[in-house]
């Protein structure tokens, strides 16, 4: 049974104290801190202009938010703010940081393949739940994967449904509007072909690749967020497992990536097939092989945010109704340039 949002119409300030600290910026609005007046509990508050697209985002996210690996929405208010009709979305406050920031900031203990498999289980279970609801997220990326708290027992959850869309088994046309974040985009999204939920599986494969080595399989050689050459390599599926970072990674992990990164969506594994893959089903039994991921990310401690910022600039320059990415001539990708030079990759 679908969960339906009940929009509250009383002023949110009757129930919550809204803070000034910005916790993040999504596709369609910013997220700030707020506290519930009656008990002082802290939440994240997403502020959206009340337009049909924002309502769809909230409705899809709310419907999916009962899953343990999807950020939960508690309440939604319809209010006017500065003479603008807005939606105020009260969500759980994710205080544990983003996925790769968390890995990057580890101290002495090595990040292991078993941990990578655990993380991928969490991500894929969220995607499988969405796909079971006929919802495509369409923006699976590290910045949308947050931990509940700083502890070792924190739970990883998916958020930001700004690009999400429901597919109703033929009653609605397939996804045609190209919406994507560079580095995580599936080949079919780059073309005029129609695409479906399998673009989320591709993005999961990209994240698995980075988890296991510390850098993405596809990138621009010229520092642009997405260059013609990068598009060509994505469409051709030109990536490899070359370099010392891959020497100790299991064949099962590489096999999962290959199944996710099939360039033809018809050949790509479904999310249910991925959930049945031995690397996912036995995620708690995967060898605790130390990976180079933390070291690679720490080598570029200052540069990794540049990659994220570059992606966000490209995202901000897009119009959702038609694909349009501005050329960012001043963008520099020092992280990936250094990786190419140091490892001798010729992708």
From TrEMBL:
Source organism superkingdom: Eukaryota
Residues annotated as binding ATP: 46
Occurrences of domain Protein kinase (ranges): 17-280
GO terms for MF: ATP binding; protein kinase binding; protein serine/threonine kinase activity
Cofactor: Mg(2+)
GO BP: behavioral response to nicotine
Matches recorded under InterPro entries: CDPK_Ser/Thr_kinases (IPR050205), Kinase-like_dom_sf (IPR011009), MAPKAPK_C (IPR027442), Prot_kinase_dom (IPR000719), Protein_kinase_ATP_BS (IPR017441), Ser/Thr_kinase_AS (IPR008271)
Family: Belongs to the protein kinase superfamily. CAMK Ser/Thr protein kinase family.
Annotated protein name in UniProt: non-specific serine/threonine protein kinase
Organism of derivation: Panagrolaimus superbus
Lineage of source species: Eukaryota, Metazoa, Ecdysozoa, Nematoda, Chromadorea
């Amino acid at each position: 049974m679908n969960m339906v949002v009940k929009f509250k119409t009383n002023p949110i300030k009757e129930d919550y104290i809204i803070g000034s600290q910005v916790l993040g910026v999504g596709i369609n609005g910013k997220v700030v801190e707020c506290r519930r007046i009656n008990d002082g509990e802290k939440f994240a508050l997403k502020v959206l202009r009340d337009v049909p697209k924002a309502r769809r985002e909230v409705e899809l996210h709310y419907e999916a938010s009962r899953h343990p690996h999807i950020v939960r929405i508690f309440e939604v208010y319809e209010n006017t703010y500065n003479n603008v009709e807005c939606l105020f979305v009260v969500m759980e406050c994710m205080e544990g940081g983003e996925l790769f920031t968390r890995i990057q900031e580890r101290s002495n203990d090595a990040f292991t393949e078993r941990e990578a498999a655990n993380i991928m289980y969490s991500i894929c279970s969220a995607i499988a739940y969405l796909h079971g609801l006929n919802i495509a997220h369409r923006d699976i990326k590290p910045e949308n994967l947050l931990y509940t708290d700083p502890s070792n027992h924190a739970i990883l959850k998916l958020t930001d449904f700004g690009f999400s869309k429901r597919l109703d088994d033929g009653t609605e046309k397939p996804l045609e509007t190209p919406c994507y974040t560079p580095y995580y985009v599936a080949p079919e999204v780059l073309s005029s072909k129609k695409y479906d939920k399998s673009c989320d599986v591709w993005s999961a494969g990209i994240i698995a690749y980075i988890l296991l080595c510390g850098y993405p399989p596809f990138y621009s050689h010229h520092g642009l967020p997405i260059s013609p050459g990068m598009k060509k390599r994505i469409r051709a599926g030109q990536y490899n497992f070359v370099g010392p970072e891959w020497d100790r990674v299991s064949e099962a992990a590489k096999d999962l990536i290959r199944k996710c990164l099939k360039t033809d969506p018809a050949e790509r594994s479904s999310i249910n097939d991925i959930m049945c893959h031995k690397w996912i089903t036995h995620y708690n039994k995967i060898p605790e092989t130390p990976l180079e991921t933390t070291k690679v990310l720490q080598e570029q401690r200052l540069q990794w945010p540049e990659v994220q910022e570059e992606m966000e600039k490209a995202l901000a320059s897009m119009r959702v109704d038609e694909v349009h990415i501005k050329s960012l001539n001043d963008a520099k990708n020092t992280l990936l340039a250094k990786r190419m030079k140091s490892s001798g990759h010729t992708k």
